[in-house]
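User: I'm curious whether this sequence folds into something compact or stays loose and floppy. Could you predict its structure so I can see for myself?
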Amino acid sequence: MKKLLLLAATFSVLSSSAFAGQKMDITVKGMVCSFCSQGITKKFKEEGVKSVDVDLGKHLVSIELQDKQELSTEKITKILTDSGYGVEKIETK
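Assistant: Here's the prediction. I'll summarize afterward.
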């Protein structure tokens, strides 16, 4: 039973974190203009993200992390929701 709980805890930690050099696609609700794009880019750059690409037509934010950088899905969601957007999905490439 202890092994099962340890395995579940490990999986939970790994599934909620993004690791160095990793690329992620985030489907975002509420982005409608270039001001939205600029604001989202600025927020992720403040976190030290290597690159940010915002596609307003697809409602998609693509980020790439720096080497040795970690950014949890919870942190990504908080960045966007605090900025007034909704997060539909986060996919790791």
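Summary: The first helix runs from residue 2 to 15. Residues 17-92 form a domain with the Alpha-Beta Plaits fold (CATH 3.30.70.100).
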